[in-house]
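Reviewer 2 asked us to include a model.

Predict the structure of this chain.
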Amino acid sequence: MNNEISGIIALFVVTLLLAIPFGKYMAKVYTGEQTFFDPVFNPVEKLFYRISGIDASQEMNWKQHLTALLSINFIWFLLSMFILMNQGWLPLNPDGNPSMSPDLAFNTAISFVVNCNLQHYSGETGVSYLTQLIGLMYLHFVSAATGMAACVIVFNAMRNRQAEKLGNFYNYFLKSCTRILLPLSIIVSALLVFNGTPMTFEGKDTITTLQGDSMKVSRGPVAAFVAIKHLGTNGGGFFGANSAHPLENPNYFTNALEMFSQMIIPLAFIFALGYYLKRKKLAWTIFGVMTVGFLSLTIPTVIAEINGSPAIQHLGVVQPTGSMEGKEVRFGTAASAYWSIATTVISTGSVNSMHDSSMPLSGAMQMLGMMINAFYGGCGVGILNYYIFIILGVFISGLMVGRTPEFLGKKVEAREVKIAAIIAILHPLLILVGSALAAYLTANDTPMGWWFNGNATGWLNNPGYHGFSEMLYEYTSSAANNGSGFEGLGDNNPFWNITTGIVLLLSRFLPIIGPVAIAGLLANKKYIPASAGTLKTDTSTFAIMTLAVIGIIAALSFFPALALGPLAEHFTLFK
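Predicted model (structure tokens):
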């Protein structure tokens, strides 16, 4: 067990050490400085702009950025819907998987467009190879690049003393794909192939088991899919079991590689901010707050999984390997617990163990990571979510000292605070309203008709506290653009497909629109030089203030719901 803990500590340290220089490289990419990939990708990007007719040198204001972002995402949604609803007759379908129903296609298309990858289907039987590559893996790249481009727009607003134009969305978007996501994906997918992950277009393979039985094993272009699903913090599995599947995640090395892959870009983005703005101290302050939050969730989860169930311990049964239910022996308890927090904090949503089988306290930590949704976060959007808390922290601090709040030389006034407050309230609103509706229908055993084949209680495999946790987790995962789930929930029906689809849509684009709008409004304001009374945002004092704001908002919003689900279940184990 000590070796397992040493392994996850070493993995975090290595990821951090590599994230710092990679963040510097990312800052150079977005500022247009020369990098070693220029000879390879400059011609590719110029060809793309020539074909599309886009002028990458034409700068946009924040409204034009959002128009471009939303328009191109709408086109991707329509394309995905077409492929998903017609994959049964389209090519590259050697296993003959059927087309999706309209409600499932709606949920899946939105889920992958918004970088969530909530899967109400099983990958090996639910989609064809064409869908995996063009309908889904393509979205792994572009949905991640969308969040990264939006983050750079905010960087520009923070860097410029006074400006209306904030760069070009398509320039940042394409560079995110070509200069960052693609090179890393090639490296990671190659390492996965050499460790046994399939990369083929052939259909199911027939094997003979040790017992002499013949069985079909699904395969496909898995390695490329798994690489970008983690690097883009997407998380959708090629197989239904996701990274718990031995072909997606064959051994301990690939497990560490995939954990590294999902954390490297979110961590690097923090340091990219420091290099981009030439404010390294601010970047380290943000990193410190996020890391304190991450460790506050990780440590209790690792301890809970290593110790195992108190109910079993009271029976006098020793659990030398901890709580192994729902976990893979090749990874162990500690690595599975670490992954579960990394994937929920980073908003990847991939799993190497079944979160539904985690200890109740671990489930609470996993949900809390998604409820806060600002500790590292996904590609680009983690910084955007944290930016909202910075604005709120600056506003509250300004009230405390009795002067107009300022951030990086710009006055934060009523309009910006109202937008930040709306975005901060939206997240718990979507989670709690959805959970309350599902809980009400379940408690009253409501006949669902077309929405569900039977009564509402039919979608729960577990009663009581855990059943409520399953529903709360589903809406939390949807609102956090995460995609993982408590898989005891029967969610492939019109009710869950449509309601979570709506949550996915609102929770992706409004939290992007809000920070970009705030940044654009601040960028237009007159720059105010720092004075003796200016609140410095790169100090430990402001870091503590921001952490307090995050903690208070999370506690007021989510503690009652957590108390009804995972926390109540946790205390029943001591009876």
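The chain has a mean pLDDT of 91. The longest strand covers residues 205-208. We have added this to the supplementary material.
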